[in-house]
Amino acid sequence: MHPPVPRRALGATVLSAALVLTGGCFSGSAGGAADSERLSVAMLNPPRSALNPFSDDAFKLSRLGIAETLVQLDEAGDPLPMLATEWRQTADDTWEFDIRREVTFHDGTTLDARVVADALTAATEARPKPRILDGVEWDVRAEGDDQVVITTNFTDPLTPHRLSSPQLSILSPDAYQGDGNTVDPTGHGSGPFELVTLNGSDSAALDRFEGYWNGTAAAPGIDVSFVPDGAARTAALRTGEADIVEAIPPSQAALLDEGTFREVPMPRTNTLYLNTREDGASGVFADPAMRAAVRAAVDAEPLVESVYESRADLADGLLGPALPWSDQRPERGEGPEPADPDGARITLATFTDRAELPEVAATLEQQLEAAGFEVEQEIREYAQIESDALNGEFDLFILSRATVLDSGDPVAYMVSDFSCDGGFNISGLCDTEVDDLLSAAEQEGDPDARRTATLEAERAILETDAAIPLLHERVIQGDAPGTEGALFDPRERLLVGLETHRSTD
Predict the structure, then answer these.
(1) Domain segments of the chain as ranges
(2) What is the rounded CA–CA span in Å between residue 439 and residue 412?
């Protein structure tokens, strides 16, 4: 059972916001406060689904302080109360959550158990489902006004962790429209900032929500513009146009003054996915020996030293130094002998939103062609390439992938990316041993045993050569002089807290 957390202690960890350059200038104030008091934040990716929480846009709802979940995670990845104050497992397949009272949504609706049950049910019925629910079936019901009961289709000790995913944010009933796949967070969140305006993929404006249940934010509002170009984001920090800048490219960090950015290993791995489908793309990598030929050809060390300017860590597995226990991984089998590529024609794809990835693709193309492949590159913005990658249109795909983003636990990521029924299975891998090991890891409740099971599943995945981890990225966040109280979250869920503000001294 988990007691409620103190009012200000919780609020200091749940706010977030962002502003990004558009056409060389920042969005204007949407509220009545002076522009000089509002926060401007430069963010990496524009919204892809109009901030629908069932998509990856959910993490912008979290970082912008618009919407909240039942559970949040502490720095170690353990669950803490948010919109739920306590929870308990009453049977192998049943969990009860007590819902926080006196929470008001931005549209004036009051939070209760029915609102929560309906929101979570909408998530389970969405198509596609939020990836945090890959392989999971939930029955969600309200018990009175204050309690929600979740019944799972298997013994799932990760249930509270899953409820921390921003993809399971709780919005007011009016947010859910039409067939349930359309969700509009504008004016329907419960967080400290209300989304007032979303201007497509260009900008957004947020105002402080004076009725926030956990206190009052120091900043009167946030102006957001979305700029994929890393040099533009960095320039905004150097010129003082942005107070907070996320995802500073490693190549740009050297241009910044000391003390204006922070860097730390993050649970994000740059991985080369190989399409194992017989009917996918060229079908070349349905052959394990051809996948082994790619593994033998790829050398990630030049990527770390040159492309990332040594601001990354060479990968030995899917999980990296942000998870200290990952270095306890078991020894990996040697796998099949590499085949002779013999001029096999393959397509290598990635996206432009992360500035380093096209450079990674260029280096890998050289390495693969030196090994005997003929390589054609396909590079687009992520929003225009994701569906083709998931549909198996490419032989190889380079992805910068967060490994604990959804639940704070890497098992959900592995199930999503590498199980037969995974919703983000770019490689199309379907392997009985992998599925069995992932299932065992999912059901393990003891933390140490779960980590051991997770590393066994990682070993089995790597032995298929369906994914070749290249490097582990570091998060580099810029804070302009005079910006105080900005949050620094390697899991990329939080950015602006209740105390974050622009100093007037």
Answers:
(1) 7-248+480-502, 266-474
(2) 10
Pick the CATH number of 266-474 from 3.30.450.40, 3.10.105.10, 3.40.50.300, 3.30.980.10: 3.10.105.10
218, pLDDT greater than 50: yes
pTM over 0.90: no
User: In angstroms, how far is CA 415 from the centroid of its own chain?
Assistant: 15
Number of neighbours of residue 446 by Cβ within 10 angstroms = 10
pLDDT band at 505 (very low <50, low <70, confident <90, very high): low
Euclidean distance between CA atoms 298 and 368, whole angstroms: 7
Please say whether the structural domain 7-248+480-502 has been given the CATH code 3.40.190.10.
yes
Decide if pLDDT at 21 tops 50: no
Q: Are 399 and 346 in contact (CB under 8 A)?
A: no
pLDDT at 289: 98
Is 59:493 a contact under the CB 8 Å cutoff? yes
3-class SS letters over 63-102: HCCCCECCEEECCCCCEEECCEEEEEEEECCEEEEEECCC
pLDDT in tens, 291-346: 999 999 999 999 999 999 999 999 999 999 988 899 999 999 988 999 999 999 99
Q: How many Cα atoms occupy the beta-carbon half-sphere of 383 within 13 Å?
A: 11
Chain CA centroid to CA 43, Å: 14
